[in-house]
Design brief:
Elements lengths: L1 H28 L16 E10 L4 E8 L4 E7 L4 E7 L2 H13 L8 E3 L7 E9 L4 E7 L6 H12 L5
Parallel strand pairs: 5-7
Antiparallel strand pairs: 1-2, 1-6, 2-3, 3-4, 6-7
Helix pairs in contact: 2-3
Length: 165
């Protein structure tokens, strides 16, 4: 009887240890602050970022062009009723803060495509990152977004003064 109790207790402890290990593994794997997978990008490597956001249910489209050589932001807002275009500037410090946040939240390593076909009137975002070496990174989101999308929206706002995502 005692041997059976010891075996049961040992089995329960082993099961708890395995479950705890599995939980810790998946939490670490999905941790948005995990720096293992981040390919750090320096400010002097980025030429520009283009963002085209469409809210399908409102028929609104927001286009942003961030020029890191000129430290300018071009914003175009289009909807059924009118369109607006305006320019703004940002400092080198704001650009550096943006790149730090983008590297922290793995922005430059987002996948090429996020897609949810089950939503018909949601939101789409196309992002094009142009690098000074001529390479281009494209990210397309249609009603599905990277895990760090919302925090990157805050990073864009803090750096440039606009919720671009």
């Amino acid at each position: 009887m005692r041997i059976m109790k010891k075996i049961t207790v040992t089995a329960v402890i082993c099961l708890i240890a395995v479950l705890l290990f599995a939980v810790l593994y998946f939490v670490h794997k999905n941790d948005t602050h995990n720096t293992e997978n981040i390919s750090a990008v320096e400010l002097n490597e980025i030429e520009s970022i283009e963002i085209d956001t469409v809210y399908y249910y409102l028929f609104d489209e927001y286009k942003y062009f961030i020029d890191f050589s000129e430290n300018t932001v071009l914003c175009e807002i289009e909807n059924d009723e009118n369109s607006k275009t305006f320019y703004d500037t940002f400092t080198d410090e704001q650009a550096e803060n943006f790149v730090k946040g983008a590297n922290r939240y793995d922005f430059f390593s987002w996948e090429e495509s996020y897609y949810n076909p089950n939503v018909y009137d949601g939101m789409g975002v196309d992002i094009v990152i142009n690098f000074k070496d001529g390479s281009v990174k494209e990210i397309h989101c249609f009603n599905e977004f990277p895990l760090t999308y919302d925090v990157m929206s805050e990073v864009f706002y803090d750096a440039f003064g606009y919720y671009m995502l």
